[in-house]
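My main concern about presentation is that the manuscript never shows what a single data entry looks like. An entry of this sort, consisting of the sequence and the corresponding backbone structure tokens, reads as follows:
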Amino acid sequence: MYFLSPQEVNTLYIKGNAIDLGDNWGRELYCLIEAGKDVFQTVYVDNETMAQVLNNSQAFRQFNKKAIVKPAGFNNSADNSIVSFE
């Protein structure tokens, strides 16, 4: 499994709230993080609750990733790819 993008990527932004993750998000997150384990240097989220949930997930522990709340100046432009767990 690997991550392929037409442009250089090193940041993953997971938008939303932990309560909205729905069913089976852990498996999907694991696949995403495994695929991007050597690509995603930074993982941004919208709030501290989401960061805590992701940081406690098997995927983040297994691949030594840490979600942090996005900085105020973070630009989530329309040119970025969107990943959905729906």
